[in-house]
Amino acid sequence: MKEIGKGWVEGSAQELLGLTDAEAAYIETKAVLTRAVRERRLALGLSQASMAKALGTSQSRFSFIERGDPSVSIDLALRALFETGVDMRGVAALMAGETVPKASPEPCCAVREGAKLGGRVFPRTAF
């Protein structure tokens, strides 16, 4: 933190809050993902209620995702993005500061039809 005069200091949020690099990276990751959830939902013309129904949660809880509320985990933001048609490459593009590729513009059928997701979601991994 650099003092700039009359009791004012200049520095990053990380310095001000005394965050480690890992903590700062986690917060930035969550901010990127939750911002993308809202942008993607709006771009597709979906309501918070339809997204919440597809994720098996309430509309108020879904609004917490979009606001980046500390009580919401990153995995729920990822599930929301996957439901809107964003794939793992799209998430990687978001994390790299790029826009989501146009390869998957349609939301998954669960969101279109307002169905509740069942079971667990496991990403396909190449070894």
Description:
The chain is mostly helical. Helix content is 54%, strand content 6%. The chain contains 7 helices and 2 strands, in the order ββααααααα. It has a two-stranded antiparallel ribbon. A hairpin with a 2-residue loop joins β1 and β2 (8-10). α2 (21-43) runs parallel beside α5 and α3 (48-55) crosses α4. The longest helix has 23 residues, at 21-43. The model is unreliable at 115-127 (pLDDT under 50).
Key structural traits:
127 residues; mainly alpha; 2 strands
Structural class designation = mainly alpha
Number of helices: 7
**Oligomer type:** single chain
| Poorly predicted segments | 115-127
- Strand-residue proportion: 5-15%
- The shape is elongated
What does the radius of gyration come to?
17 Å
Q: Give the termini separation.
A: 44 Å
Overall average residue pLDDT: 81
Main sheet properties = 2 strands, antiparallel
Number of strands: 2
Spell out the helices and strands N to C: EEHHHHHHH
Instruction: Tell me roughly what share of residues is in helical segments.
Output: 40-55%
Strand order of the largest sheet: 1-2
Q: Outline of this structure?
A:
Strand 1 (2-5) and strand 2 (8-10) form a beta hairpin. The protein has 127 residues and is mostly helical.
Per-chain topology:
Layout (H helix, E strand, L loop, with lengths): L1 E4 L2 E3 L2 H5 L3 H23 L4 H8 L3 H9 L6 H10 L4 H8 L13 H5 L14
Antiparallel strand pairs: 1-2
